Amino acid sequence: MKKIFTISLVMLCATMLSAQVTIRFKAVPGGWDKINIYSWQTIGGSNVEIFGAWPGATSEKDANGFYSVTVPAGKSVGNVIFNNGSGAQFDATNVTDAVLPACFSISATTATLLEDCAGAIPPPPPADVVLRFKQVGDNNWEKVYIYSWDDRSGSNVEIWGGWPGATSTKDANGWYTVEVPNGKSVGNVIFNNNAGAQFDAFAVENAPTVSTCYEITTSAATVVTCPVVGTYDVAADGSTVVGYFSILGAKLSQEPASGLFLVKYSNGKTVKVVK
């Protein structure tokens, strides 16, 4: 069944491509497992879908992970929507006839034009939500992993990849730090050691939506106050705080009580803080 869209766009019906062109696109690391490109436009009162009906066209990925689809000669790319075929989608208003042929990196919300089609995909922006966990009590696992799964869309979504999930190098105080990819949601969580020991930490309805810290035993995860990391002693050079910013650079009205954010100082230094 075709999706119903509510968007505001200038219709692209006057320009047509004189020769066929190729659009190549690739998911950012940790992004969608499958990408489709759908195009629509109204010409002469009829809906024209040059890549076919919803969810549109896709292809096998090449050796560099790029999908490739072709806009036929004499056609316009129209209004473009990237989607994963499982409910996630966004309007790619920057994919136009004027920029084609071209390559794009695809996140959950944005198509980024690449200057070099053969080059590496730029990394996604730093995550706004960070989960930190530390072993306590009877937990003497050599390594701790966090695995997330969510099948509510009809297909299993694993934001940190397949089993056993994600881990990191512990900091000096024993904390693991794992970022939630932007545009993703934590699902049902299982902590494990990738050696047979594991436990269900929480179900998706209780999953964190803000940065959270846990103390981990072999059977339970307890929410605790996050220790502050990334602090900067400004007394030594007399610097003052200029402002607080989100990890994506938006200015905040005050210092956040918790989470991941940036602190900018009068000496030009910027520190990423987690608390």
Task: Outline the structure in words.
- The chain has 275 residues and is mainly beta.
- The chain folds into 3 domains: 21-114, Sandwich (Immunoglobulin-like); 130-224, Immunoglobulin-like (Sandwich), CATH 2.60.40; 241-274, no CATH class.
- The chain is 0% helix and 35% strand.
- It has strands at residues 21-27, 36-43, 46-48, 67-71, 79-83, 89-91, 102-106, 111-114, 129-135, 145-149, 175-180, 188-192, 198-202, 212-216, 221-224, 241-245, 251-252, 260-265, 270-274.
- A 4-stranded mixed β-sheet has the order 4-1-7-8, with no helix packed on it.
- β5 (79-83) and β6 form a beta hairpin.
- It starts with 20 loop residues before the first strand and ends with a strand.
- Residues 1-15 and 120-125 have low confidence and may be disordered.
Give the low-confidence spans: 1-15, 120-125
Q: Mean of the pLDDT scores?
A: 81
| β-strand number | 19
**Which H/E pattern describes the elements?**
EEEEEEEEEEEEEEEEEEE
Record the strand order, biggest sheet. Answer: 4-1-7-8
The class by helix and strand makeup works out as mainly beta
Count the domains.
3
| Largest beta-sheet details | 4 strands, mixed
Give the CATH class of the largest domain: Mainly Beta
User: Over the alpha carbons, how many angstroms does the gyration radius reach?
Assistant: 23 Å
Tell me the strand percentage band: 25-35%
Q: Give the CATH topology of the largest domain.
A: Immunoglobulin-like
